[in-house]
Amino acid sequence: MLADEGAMVVDCWKICIAQISPKLGNIEHNVDKHLHYVSEAKSRQASLVVFPELGLTGYQVQDMTLDVARTLDHPQIQVLVESSRDIDVVFSCVEETKHHLFHVTVVYATKGKIAGIHRKVYLPTYGMFDERRYFAPGTSFRTISSHTVGDVGLMVCEDAWHGTSPYLLALQGANLLIIPSSSPARDVTDANYFGSQKFWRELLQVYAETYGAFVVFANRVGVEDGISFFGGSGVVSPEGDWVLSAPTVTEGLYDAMIDTRASRRARFSTPILRDERPLLVARELERIIKTREESER
Fold this sequence. Notes:
Blueprint: E1 12-19, H1 27-43, E2 48-50, H2 65-68, H3 75-82, E3 88-96, E4 102-110, E5 113-119, E6 143-146, E7 150-154, H4 164-171, E8 176-181, H5 195-211, E9 214-219, E10 221-224, E11 227-230, E12 234-236, E13 242-245, E14 252-259, H6 261-269, H7 278-295
Parallel strand pairs: 1-2, 2-3, 7-8, 8-9
Antiparallel strand pairs: 1-14, 3-4, 4-5, 6-7, 9-12, 10-11, 12-13
Helix pairs in contact: 1-3
C-alpha cells in the first residue's frame, strides 16, 4: 500500500509490470490502455506500475515522430500523470522539448505530479535500429526520490547495455533500477529463451547482485513492421533471483511483492558499493580521454 506523507515507509510493497502491445502511432488508444492497467494495478493494491519503452506511441515511429511527439504538459501526458495520485506510474513517450528536440523519455509520476524524467542516453543505430536518426540523446543519469519505493534509477533499453549506466545510478543511492524496454526477439539459443532474452536475464542478474538493488525490466510484446518483441518482463532481487518472470509474447499485468530489506542485507554482506572509488575512476577516465585525444592528433 502507498504510504502517506510523513508516514513510515513500509518494507514490503507490490509492483506491477504492464507488458503491453501498443498500437503504432495511435496515442489515444495507447493512453486508454495505460489507464486500464493503472486501474487494474490499483485494484491489486500495488504501489507502482511500470510500462514499456515508448508504450504511448509504439517503437517504430520513425517518420511519424513529429506527429506522435508530445510536450510533458500535453493533455495526453497529463492524464497519465494525474492517474498517479494513488499509485506511482512509470511510462514512456516521445518527448518534444521547448527547443524542438525529440527524446525517448521515461516519466516517473507520483501523487499526480512528475517526480522526474529520464531521456534515453544511448540510442542504438546499428543493425535493425535507427534511433539516432530521429532522436536526440539524453545527457545524464539522475536518481529520483519516491515517497514509496525509495531512490529510483531509470534506464531505457540500450542504456542498460552500457555498464556505466547502472554504476552511476547506484553511486547516487538507487536501490531500485527500472528499465522500460522495447527489445525484439532475436536468435534462438535454447529451448527456453530467445538469444536477446537470455542476454537480458544474465545482464540484469549481474547488475542486481553487484549493486544490491532490485531491477525491474518492463519489456513490450507484439509485432511492428515484421519485428516481434519478446516480453519476458520481470523483477530481479538483490540476490540475483527472478522473483517475477512474465511469459514471452503474452500481454498482461504481472505483479510481485518486494521486500526493501533485501537490498539492505545484500549491501551489507557484499559491500561493493561501499568499496567503490569514484574519484579514482574519475582520474583514470580523465587520463584515458586525454591519451585518446593525443593519439588522434
